[in-house]
Write a structure and sequence with these properties.
With 329 residues, the protein is an alpha/beta fold. Helix 3 packs parallel to helix 4.
């Protein structure tokens, strides 16, 4: 199989990071499941499940070759480093980035990196991105939908958005545990249901608060097709017209703003992908697999996208061309 796909939603977890979040994070607990997976909770809600053992780089590349994936963009996932002690956050973020860059250098062309940043300290986050600017392997920034129990439209982050916009940065936003976990601590509801809600909420808050409008230079990618956004995007315009507070910091229809965002296709549910294509546009979608979290590897995501009945140009855009242009690959 010719490897041509670019996978923008792929995770890995350096040992330093896993050791930090299982030993030092505020509100973080963990246990090992019967099947060997490491489960990390934030405020008693499941934030992360890590397959054990993690695939080696060689195993990852073999799986990529089997599924026609030329390049993966590596990132960690929730809960990131935000709840670590101040004394650790910077060093752990830097270690993650250095290890991912090293993987990319040892496998030329196969990997790129979304950099982890030590928020909520905006100054430290900017310093880490300045350091990472010297690494051509780093093609963007990884963020969670909440940062240390703050939503992304919190005023604290305004200087950070300004910095990213001025540099025309690519930002990949992944869901995380909600600021309030009432009702989410049983049945792994934080993962199965609320992660989609958290992505949707992050997008709508950033839209109505005017962050997207004020900082137009940033290129945003939201995971899992924007959560439930394809199902309700028209409602955002409806309530924008009805409620004056929705117009205070946003000066055009929400759908006009959302039209400028990107979303990955990390689902194996064909009707959901079709809904995203119809609601968001095939030109705004990027291929993603969530590897190595879903049993069976990457094939299900390739097959699902291929079953959507897309013509060759649109399918090629989603699989690689849009990501290549966006990330400079």
């Amino acid at each position: 199989m010719t490897a041509h796909r670019i996978d923008v939603h792929a995770h890995d977890y350096p040992t330093t990071y896993l050791e930090a979040i299982t030993a030092h994070g505020e509100g973080l607990t963990h246990y090992t499941r019967d099947d060997g997976r490491l489960v990390v909770k934030q405020d008693d809600a499941v934030a992360l499940t890590v397959p054990q053992p993690l695939p080696t780089v060689e195993e990852r590349v073999r799986r990529m070759d089997e599924s026609g994936v030329r390049t993966q963009v590596l990132s960690i996932s929730a809960p990131s480093v935000y709840l670590l002690p101040d004394s650790m956050r910077v060093s752990v973020a830097a270690d993650v980035n250095d290890r991912f860059v090293d993987v990319a250098r040892r496998q030329p062309g196969r990997f790129r990196v979304f950099a982890t940043v030590p928020l909520p300290d905006v100054g430290a986050a900017i310093d880490e991105l300045e350091r990472c600017a010297h690494f051509p392997e780093v093609v963007g920034v990884f963020l969670c939908s909440t940062v240390a129990r703050r939503s992304l439209d919190d005023d604290l982050f305004e200087p950070f958005w300004d910095y990213l916009s001025q540099r025309k940065s690519v930002v990949f936003v992944h869901p995380s545990v909600a600021c309030c976990t009432d009702g989410l601590t049983t049945f792994a509801l934080s993962l199965s249901v609320d992660y989609f809600a958290e992505t949707t909420l992050a997008i709508t808050r950033l839209t109505y608060s005017g962050v997207f409008e004020r900082y137009p230079g940033t290129r945003w990618i939201f995971s899992h097709m924007g959560g439930s956004l394809p199902m309700l995007v028209n409602r955002l315009d409806n309530y924008y017209r009805q409620f004056p507070e929705c117009q205070e910091r946003l000066h055009r229809l929400p759908t006009e703003v959302i039209r400028g965002l990107y979303f990955d296709t990390a689902t194996s549910h064909v009707p959901a992908i079709r809904c995203a294509i119809d609601s968001l546009g095939s030109d705004r979608l990027l291929f993603g697999t969530d590897y190595p979290h879903v049993p069976g590897g990457m094939a299900a995501f390739v097959d699902a996208l291929g079953s959507c009945g897309l013509g060759s140009p649109a399918l090629a855009d989603i699989e690689s061309r849009t990501a290549a242009a966006l990330l400079g690959l």
